[in-house]
Amino acid sequence: MNKIYLSALALIAGASISAQVNNAGFExxxxxxxxxxxxxxxxxxxxxxxxxxxNVITPATEVTTGAxxxxxxxxxxxxxxxxxxxxxxxxxxxxxxxxxxxIVSTDKYEDFTFDxxxxxxxxxxxxxxxxxxxxxxxxxxxxxxxxGGTQNAFSTVTVDMNYIGAVTEYTVFIASSEGQIFNNALxxxxxxxxxxxxxxxxxxxxxxxxDVTNVLATDISDNEDGSDLxxxxxxxxxxxxxxxxxxxxxxxxxxxxxxxxEAFIAGSGVMIATTGANQTFNFTAAGEYWRINAAGDAVxxxxxxxxxxxxxxxLVEAATGYSSVIATSNAITLTSxxxxxxxxxxxxxxPNPANNFVNFKIDGLENGTVIINSVTGQEVVNTTISNGxxxxxxxxxxxxxxxxTIRNNNNEVIKTNKLVVRK
Length: 423
Hints:
The chain has 423 residues and is mainly beta. The protein has 3 domains: 29-202, BT2081, beta-jelly-roll domain (Jelly Rolls), CATH 2.60.120; 213-334, Immunoglobulin-like, CATH 2.60.40; 346-421, Macroglobulin (MG2) domain (Immunoglobulin-like). It is built from 3 helices and 32 strands. The strands form 9 sheets. Strands 2-3-14-8-11 form a 5-stranded antiparallel β-sheet, with no helix packed on it. It has a 5-stranded antiparallel β-sheet with strand order 6-13-9-10-12, with no helix packed on it. A hairpin with a 6-residue loop joins strand 26 (347-350) and strand 27. The chain is elongated, with a radius of gyration of 28 Å.
């Protein structure tokens, strides 16, 4: 699931609080230097802004009396826009008021605490939500608290965070109506709902368990079933790891597309005990993978089959006090080119592990190609082979695991497997 960017229509609901960005009472962060709150001005010049009746309101304000710390706090109020002067971009209707802030940090915070009071209309809900993202913009952590009813005095609330991977950035959303951010059938956006927030503080930093490395899926045999699929990976330290869980999924869907990736893998995957730094897991003939169903609205599990591109996901389940992580293998498509391989009497790849050179020997192959890819899919070698023999220079490759593929002149796969470079 990629990072959620709210629509321009949603963002106009957050108004400028120009003095607030330097106010320690509202942005009392214990570490780092967060960016300014994103400011989106919406004023009476765009139309009539009311609480749904005749009361004219400002969607977001800086309140300078009654702060729990510092000199001010933020108040957000849902509103009705009528007689819009820009109906194309800002049509008449009901809106929630929003404030948004990005925080660049690689630390995983155990929780976020803040002071809050609110008056939310019946059937509406206000929300405070924190989302964490990795460097590719994938959602890897979240925590939220939903508010309904009335709380007239400030009280302190703690939002616990859950993570499934490494973090590079956070986004904090505060909305007077949850429906302005998410389509929620249980929450009806209601003008006049308001929420006030002050004194946001990050909690203790959670250490990650070590990331697994060299996560490699390979097609190891020609049985035409799940037993062809093998997963290998390395782990530098198992001292704070409870177990591993592995699950295979079609490449067009991933656990990150689901509501709770960690829970899905732990509940639907196969558990592997912690047995050493180098792990190998072989799927069985009855092994299953997950794919999108025919209706396109859910995932379903079926027997592993050939000619389907898959990836394997590894959940490293952490011990108490540590954060679990998820790693992903290369894309793999199982094939059984039995009729092709029968043409060749001997297939040898040596030495493996390789140092400076690796030899490919395929008796009976007159011409073909040898391609070597990194586990992330980057092509690092592409060369021809003739008369059944080729010596490939790998001296310029970094130590690690690679995938080689040998094809004949008809572009048929003769063999694919892993190659280890170790100098």
